[in-house]
Amino acid sequence: MRKIFSALLAGVMAFSMTAAFAGCGGSSSSTDSSKSESNTSKSTSDETSSKGSKGTLHMATNAFFEPYEYYENDKIVGIDVEIAGAICDKLGYTLEVDDMDFDSIITAVQSGKADFGMAGMTITEERKQAIDFTDTYTNAVQVIIVKDGDDKVKTKEDLKGAAVGVQMGTTGDIYVSDLEADGTTVERYNKGADAVLALSQGKVDAVVIDNEPAKAFVAQNEGLKILDEPFENEDYAICIAKDSSLTEEFNGALKALKDDGKIDEIIKKYIKA
Ligand code: ARG
Known about the structure:
Blueprint: H1 2-24, H2 33-48, E1 56-61, E2 64-65, E3 69-72, E4 75-77, H3 79-91, E5 94-99, H4 105-111, E6 116-117, H5 125-130, E7 132-133, E8 138-147, E9 163-167, H6 171-177, E10 185-189, H7 192-200, E11 206-210, H8 211-220, E12 224-226, E13 232-236, E14 239-240, H9 246-259, H10 262-270
Parallel strand pairs: 1-5, 1-6, 9-10, 9-11
Antiparallel strand pairs: 2-3, 3-4, 6-14, 7-14, 8-11, 8-12, 8-13
Helix pairs in contact: 1-2, 3-9, 3-10
């Protein structure tokens, strides 16, 4: 029953992902929806994991977060997708990647719609109330992006009273929301890229986001820079429904992949020192 349900669900997801993807515009020259429909969710798993005898695991992510998860043509790639693929390979599962809004991931995992969430997700005490986290697989830092030559925001102190763009539901959102009492205006966007676009257009004074996606955004958009002063250090981990035995399985696989250098290898492939 569960199989039938997930097959149905996968069909619906593939369809809605296609719709979402087709709607995001600019990045694809193909308007042939039947083509992208069959590619989106399926090819991702085929690339990253062989067919697992233990069944399929659905990974919830938000695939606009290079280099952790992002679209390359109509395929979702990145550090998280590859690490998840390596874990699933090791444990004998097939991996399917489901793209959704970042702030839907924890609910998807809680409700069982997804088996785990992996999205450059930071371990926080508040999230731990809702879901469990595996051991951390890498760390990151929140940084501040500003417009080149605009000296309104030069330090994190200057965020007080400024208009700041964030991706909704992220730790950037949480930190900057703490400054609302100091007169900061928080503009929340569905995607980090939308926050960065607002910055380019002068609608906000700064964007607070994770350092690696920040580098990718600055490389793709002229006239932006990252402030030297880091904002907050964080650890990324995979989230799994509370008290699931999958957490222990994943931690075992993660340890093995750390010990044999596979995690480092994957990270180095995407992040050049
Ligand atoms: N590390 C931040 C957090 O956990 C941002 C993650 C955003 N990830 C994404 N795939 N959009 O809140």
